[in-house]
Amino acid sequence: MSNLAIAGGPKVRQTPFPARGLIGPEERAAALALFDQAIASGHAFGYGGPAEQQYDQDFAAYLGGGFADAVNSGTNAVYCALGALQLDALSEVIVPPITDPGGIMPVALLGLVPVVADADVRSYNTCAEQIAPLITERTRAIMVAHIAGDAVDLDPVLALARRHRLYVVEDCAQAHGTLYKGRLAGTFGDIAAFSTMFGKHHCTGGQGGIVFTRNEALHWQGRRFADRGKPFNLAAAGGNVVAGLNCNLNDLSAVIGSAQVKKLPGIIAGRVRVGNAIRAALADHPAVQVGWQVPDSQSSFWFLRLVFRPEAVRVDKATYCQALAAEGIPVNPSYRAIPAEFPWFRERKVFGNSGFPWTCSDYRGPREPQARIANAIQAVETHFNIAIQENYGEREIADIVTAVRKVAAAYAV
Ligand SMILES: Cc1ncc(COP(=O)(O)O)c(C=O)c1O
What is the sign of the dihedral through the CA atoms of 21, 24, 30 and 35? Predict the structure, then answer.
């Protein structure tokens, strides 16, 4: 016990973990080339030009072919993916329980009703079993999110959607490079949304996002929606065809994105190496279990989930994690990203005090927001997360494993 860093003992990790180094000379060169071009030509760089087209193509190629449209945040990628579906107002969309608020708010802002499905308690993700009972005659789409880079069990969700003729939207904000049955996440549903803000697997600079689909019609609907309804790919439109915001990315971000997509396979390989090594080392640990994964899937480890087993230690999870942090380990004791717990959702604060869409007289569903989150709460209460990066080496992996074991041993029952 006295050996723990929290009690004054030596830290397992004496030096800070290495910075990620996501931005390098490649991104700098790409940005400078765009500036040089603008200066030489006298034309400012803009948006939707060759640079963005290239990034869209590069990302679509990474996903094995299809159509991509870069936008200016992951939240707007979700917004535009849903907007592409052109759903009638008051349609219900089944949404995941654990996600960033930006993964759900677009539903309500589109005048659609988010219905929160619970998690498979072994993970942070929802599953077909939780979604099925929530389907009504008002449901039009199911949105799943591959949280932490861990794949949702998609086949049963897709089968359910087919049976009820529902769209499936994959939120891949945290899941660039995630594999499910050997295929990349984002290629299963009708349309997918990715965040490319600076902390994600690959980025477009500070903020960004990208919408992907293999359905060309949905792609064009999404592009129009993402740019104020401009009549892209329509022969004889008399002007803007649908109401939408300006969610465009810009060419400067796009060239950074293209440089990043080249690095993405290496980034994913690195995270998989680190995540799998830690999981393997902790596979049989009595006090800390590795997070359950859907069979035949490979996480891209936006972070690493671990499960705390209170019966094997004398302290609670918060105390355990405090001691782990004191050993110098980047630990998040609780990923309480449950949007249905937040005031905006519970108090229906979407369009002023109107309570819309739930209170709309044309809506035939419950007036109060629906959210099943008991499993989600249990999942966040039993799990804790370790931040991992693709550039961690053997030393970093060993330090994480050593510290997890050291603290567990010190507090063992
Ligand atoms: C699952 C999920 N969806 C949506 C978003 C929103 O993305 P952004 O922060 O780029 O708007 C995030 C952000 O982390 C996310 O994790």
Answer: positive
Q: Which run of H or E residues covers position 211?
A: strand 209-213
Which alpha helices (H) appear in 63-146, and where do they start and end?
A: 74-84, 105-109, 128-131
Contact 172, 66 (CB under 8 A): no
Give one DSSP letter per residue of 136-186, joined into a string: -TTEEEEEEE-GGGPPP-HHHHHHHHHHHT-EEEEE-TT-TT-EETTEETT
List all residues 6 or more positions away from 286 whose beta carbon is below 8 Å from its beta carbon: 309, 312, 408, 412
The residue whose CA has the least distance to atom 9 of ligand 1 is 74
Mean pLDDT to the nearest integer, 59-81: 98
The domain limits of the chain are: 25-261
pLDDT, position 2? 63
Model confidence over 355-402: pLDDT tens digits? 999 999 999 999 999 999 999 999 999 999 999 999 999 999 999 999
Q: Is 179 exposed, middle or buried (0-12, 13-18, 19+ CB in 10 A)?
A: middle
Whether omega for the bond prior to residue 357 falls within 30 degrees of 0, making it cis, is yes
Q: 326 pLDDT exceeds 70?
A: yes
- Topology of domain 25-261 in CATH is Aspartate Aminotransferase; domain 2 (3.40.640)
- Residue found by looking up tokens 């002023």 in the block: 352
Which of these, 104, 91, 106, lies nearest to 139 by C-alpha position?
A: 91
Planar angle of CA 193, 99, 286, nearest 5 degrees: 120
Query: 294, 151 in Cβ contact below 8 A?
Result: yes
Protein residue whose Cα sits closest to atom 4 of ligand 1: 103
Instruction: Tell me the best of 72, 75, 93, 303 to mutate to test the pocket of ligand 1, counting ligand atoms within 8 Å of each CB and taking the most.
Output: 75
SS3 184: strand
- Kindly report the protein residue whose alpha carbon is nearest to atom 3 of ligand 1: 103
Q: How far apart are the first and last CA of the chain?
A: 12
For residue 58, the SS3 value is helix
**Nearest Cα to 329, choosing from 258, 271, 265, 407?**
407
3-state DSSP assignment of residue 155: helix
CA of 200 to the centre of ligand 1 (A): 9
Report how far ligand 1's centroid is from the alpha carbon of 375 (Å): 22
Reference 171, options 339, 357, 364, 3; nearest CA is 339
* Residues with C-beta less than 6 Å from any ligand 1 atom: 73-75, 78, 99-100, 102-103, 145, 171, 173-174, 195, 197, 209
In one letter, which amino acid is 85?
L
Q: Cβ distance 153 to 175 under 8 Å?
A: no
